[in-house]
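Entry type: protein chain
Record version: 2
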Amino acid sequence: MLKEYRTVSEVVGPLMMVEGVEGVKFEELVDIEIQTGERRRGRVLEVDGDIAVVQLFEGSSGINLGGTKVRFLGRPLELGVSKDMIGRVFDGLGSPIDDGPKIIPDEKRDVNGVPMNPVARDYPSEFIQTGISAIDGLNTLVRGQKLPIFSGSGLPHAEVAAQIARQARVIGHGEGDRFAVVFAAMGITFEEAQFFIDDFNKTGSINRAVLFMNLADDPAIERIATPRMALTCAEYLAYEVGMHVLVILTDMTNYAEALRETSAARKEVPGRRGYPGYLYTDLSTIYERAGRIRGREGSITQIPILTMPEDDITHPIPDLTGYITEGQIILSRELYRRGIAPPIDVLPSLSRLKDEGIGEGKTREDHADTMNQLFAAYASGKEARELAVILGDAALSDTDKAFAKFSEAFENQYVSQGYDNNRNITDTLDLGWDLLKILPRTELKRIRDEYLEKYLPEETEGVEK
């Protein structure tokens, strides 16, 4: 029989102190009944002797210390999981908000997950097509990878996230029952939530997706649970149902802010910029839940999205995220101002596993060579354009002018494709070859001769007039 405590001694922000407790465990779920009869939920954040610190999910407003009853339920925060979750919309704590029926779960799972044995991990090696050339062609996403998107305030990361969720597919496995998207939004506005829900419904993507929505006016504590809810659902679909799951988390900056708020309420010693010293460890408990397991059909691929405060890539959130994940896709404010959509800056972007997911049998045999050539040519073209601004076009050689022309065409045609244009990998690679025709054949030094002969015959070489 569960004990009922009426020994609440203090409430500070989202935290409640309960004295005289016995047998209480870390992460245990708590049922709180306030004086009005309303029930709220919480979890044990810390136990010190006979004092338990409880984190409140629904906030502490209206709580009277003397009239509050607390029961410790002896189990952690759980999510009831089922394949029937596909096509449904939930709040940040896993309750349906789409007017559909309640989910009858196949099982209940601890949202904190179980650490994946490193020896059981299988190396990511299969291409995931997002339909975005700047990602597929140059910073390839691989099944089982975690590849974040670094954005800034006001940049269109929501549109990019919706485009990836709408277009992503695993080549060779199709878009049917074996591929799913788990989309978790944290601290977003009502308008943003409605945008995502409408986009999923309008395009039919909802039929292969599970949505978790935590709004900006929801308690900040709920924000800490939302990504764990999404990943618990993803782990069930991947490792029990055998699906390939793409998890999109937006915005991890809001998650970290909620973590900082809780840390301040606990009066912990702050770390960099006021964030708790365990921010790295906490983020890793989310990011490291992506991957593949030997002997299991399914996989989890993660795309966390975060907004860099003041566009500062050295800020603790992107800085620590970069250490844990395998690369980053960076959105550029300069490209956005020039109307490039999506405004992906390919030069500082990086996918550390891209070489594992490209080549013959995965994308096409010429992918690696064209990728390297496009990178090099675009970098040379940007340098030539910057030089022209300082010295004028007359100071450029014919080759420099060709590279400058190439870089402009590359941004306007290859990077800028809009948010509704879904390019398959063949279209992306062919477009890259068309752009390379702008350059003299003698400058294509990173592509093997056999590929030049096959994809760029002699009659198409030379600088365009």
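Comment: The CA atoms of residues 64 and 409 lie 65 Å apart.
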